[in-house]
Design brief:
alpha/beta
Amino acid sequence: MSGKRTVLRSRYVVQSDIIKAASVVVEGEKIVDIADYDALVDNAEVINIDEDKYLLPGMIDAHVHINEPGRTQWEGFETATRAGAVGGFTTIIDMPLNSLPPTTTVAHLEEKKKAALQKIYTDIGFWGGAVPGNCPDMAALWQEGVFGFKCFLAESGVDEFQFLNSSCLLAHMEKIKEFDGLLIVHAEDAKILADAPPAGTSYDSFLQSRPHEAEDKAIADLIEAVRKTGCKTHILHLSSSWSIDQIRQAKEEGLPLTVETCPHYLTFSAESIPDGRTEFKCCPPLRQEENREKLWQALLEGVIDYVASDHSPCTIDLKRLDEGNFATAWGGIASVQLGLSTVFTGMTARDQGIEKTVDVLCHKPAQVLGIDGKGGIKVGNDADFCVFDPNGTFTVDVNALHHKNKISPYNKMTLKGTVHETYLRGQKVDVDNPHGQFLTRS
């Protein structure tokens, strides 16, 4: 569609919290009008969306570990962004680890961009890293357009990305506050994890090795640091429902705090995970069914702002499937292609319409991150769309997924909602022809 005027005509155009019949007019890469369904648009190609399908905005995944360069055998820009695009995502924000080098300096950011050139099927932005010693690098990274800075409060799992102790955390937050940046945090308390019993082959042992108290303590300390510094802060991949009340209170106090959770925390529960099934290992861990439902409630109430995949793949051997040992297996779940359908499946089970799914996978992440031109079907935005069948179902075949290493706990799971086409900046995504671009903050 690039370079010409096109109309996408649908009986079900999802805009904010409404669904209406409309003709979405695209010129080049932008939405230039949203007209009545039967409107006649001069000199335009008309694409009629099937009557049983919805026209959604392109989804946004704000938490993806692409790992290139350095650990490209785990995942790469081509495979990760292709998987995202096939799943209805048009924007991905890449995490600063587990690539080598991590994105902790401008020079390292440039290495990332060089590795991604001509490989990306979605538009892509980058997070910077906050690690001991790189406070002087953060302002320059911010000027180069990173969306914020990720830190850990406990071991990250890779030696080159060390965690911040309490004094380092405050120093980084004070620096980030100077330029009104955003800190994003893996919140688990290092001491509680160090004192916990080791994991083994039982899933219960893994839960005991990463108790919810580690999250709760880290989040309490983080909230106090936000109160002291005023630094805008985002809690990553919330898995502990025990922290919801303190997060709610912090937001009611007016602290600049936002929160995400992940599809896997909303989908799986500890009671259903067999021993030795290390494909379910992620950190923080999947917790009990009651906890899962409380996360859903917090998401629907808006205490949790949005959902992101935390797509954290590795080579299959690192999952230690032959041993089934949760202590030695890599912790991460690959799901960048499945986020829309998994969240929609859970939403429909709770009598929620497609509007709420779009809100937590598109509108809210665009708002929190300040992603210019993304986040909804409105005039002036990029012409990013997903053609979606809300009545379609499919059974996940891990071998048919586009991410690099074919392992996922979603394998053989039946999900509701199928993606038929994805449009990026006015052009239908072709899995043989990447045309994504780099993004910076608005």
